[in-house]
Recover the amino acids of this structure.
């Protein structure tokens, strides 16, 4: 089963930005005024290429065959059995091969999110003689215990670790890691730079 994890905040903000850019491009084309319009288009193109590379493209994908880490300009595929260790700090760091490290761009955990997770994991204080919090169902209690003290990045790191260990228990052969360039991000930047050159030359 394929599971994709990304920063929801960055993803939503990126789509809001794309709608804003689309409206501005239509306005600039309709009211084209020479070099000023070209400069505005070039600025929008550069910012949009960066937003695409940093906010829309990054994702952590768990497939049946292995882990796919999509970073701004590279995609790394790691078969589950090739993963040696998984550590989580600000980002998820996956060790493989000859002490190589894949740093996943998403999900990340901020200091604020980690502090919130630690507060959530602390035992609830009961005030007075009577409990004021509603009683949780067994399912809610199990979910609360599973996420106690953990950020989203910690949870995804656990999923990666569990799948890697399961593949090794099945004595699955570790295939080679594959790293490829992100041609879509590079193409977006090339188009943006072409517009910058056109704006300067015009």
């Amino acid at each position: 089963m394929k599971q994709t994890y990304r920063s929801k905040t960055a993803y939503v903000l990126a789509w809001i930005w794309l709608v804003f850019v689309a409206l501005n491009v239509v306005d600039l084309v309709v009211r084209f005024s020479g070099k000023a319009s070209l400069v505005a288009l070039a600025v929008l193109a550069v910012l949009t290429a960066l937003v695409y590379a940093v906010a829309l493209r990054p994702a952590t994908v768990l497939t049946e065959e292995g882990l796919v880490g999509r970073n701004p300009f590279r995609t790394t595929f790691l078969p589950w059995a090739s993963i040696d260790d998984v550590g989580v700090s600000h980002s998820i760091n996956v060790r493989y091969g000859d002490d190589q490290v894949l740093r996943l761009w998403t999900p990340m955990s901020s200091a604020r999110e980690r502090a919130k997770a630690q507060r959530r994991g602390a035992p609830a204080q009961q005030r007075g003689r009577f409990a004021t919090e509603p009683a949780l169902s067994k399912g809610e209690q199990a979910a609360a215990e599973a996420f106690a003290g953990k950020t989203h990045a910690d949870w995804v790191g656990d999923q990666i670790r569990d799948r890697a260990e399961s593949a090794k228990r099945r004595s699955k052969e570790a295939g080679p890691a594959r790293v490829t360039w992100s041609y879509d991000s590079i193409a977006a930047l090339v188009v943006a730079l072409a517009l910058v050159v056109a704006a300067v030359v015009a």
